[in-house]
Structures are given as structure tokens and as C-alpha cells.
């Protein structure tokens, strides 16, 4: 179950666990009973799989700091598959 963050005007932050999508906009504060409004917070990605977090970080970095290459990748040595005799006379890249 996700953890939703609320803020009470008198007591500060309140965390509430609710089923996904079932969190109301306002909950009563457990300390004073006043209304606590739901806050928008960053997702807690530290609990996610390390491989997925690394992929997200690489995608974010490539948006603003793309990798710079100095040469195209090397071509494979030799034909990777036998040439079709019907297309053997066509120019190759």
C-alpha cells in the first residue's frame, strides 16, 4: 500500500497508508483532529529496484548531457551472413 503525505496546519506532516487511488483530499489529524490536506511529494524511488533506478538516471542524464562520440562504431569483420545471390550485385553501405 502506498504512503500518502498530508499536512496539518497545527501539527505538521502526517503520513497515512491507503490503498492505491483511495486517498481522500483531506484526512483528520491524529493528534488534534483538524483537517490535514494532501501534499504532492516526490515518489520514493529509493525503495525501487537498483537497475530500474539506474536506467531512470541514465535517461534523465541523456536528456541534458548526451553522450558524445568521436567516431562511429566499428564495422563487423567479414559478412555476418551469406549473401543472397539475387542481391549480391547491389551496393553495400
From TrEMBL:
It comes from the Bacteria. SMART domains: CxxC_CXXC_SSSS. Pfam families: Zn_ribbon_8. InterPro entries: Regulatory_FmdB_Zinc_ribbon (IPR013429). Residues 1-41 form the Putative regulatory protein FmdB zinc ribbon domain. Residues 58-93 are annotated as: Disordered. This is Putative regulatory protein FmdB zinc ribbon domain-containing protein.
Amino acid at each position: 500500500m502506498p504512503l500518502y503525505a498530508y499536512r496539518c496546519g497545527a501539527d505538521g506532516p502526517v503520513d497515512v497508508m491507503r490503498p492505491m487511488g483511495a486517498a481522500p483530499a483531506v484526512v483528520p489529524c491524529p493528534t488534534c483532529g483538524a483537517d490535514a490536506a494532501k501534499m504532492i511529494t516526490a515518489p520514493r524511488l529509493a525503495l525501487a529496484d537498483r537497475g530500474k533506478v539506474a536506467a531512470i538516471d541514465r535517461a534523465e542524464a541523456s536528456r541534458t548531457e548526451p553522450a558524445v562520440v568521436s567516431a562511429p562504431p566499428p564495422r563487423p569483420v567479414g559478412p555476418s551472413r551469406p549473401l543472397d545471390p539475387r542481391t549480391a550485385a547491389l551496393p553495400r553501405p
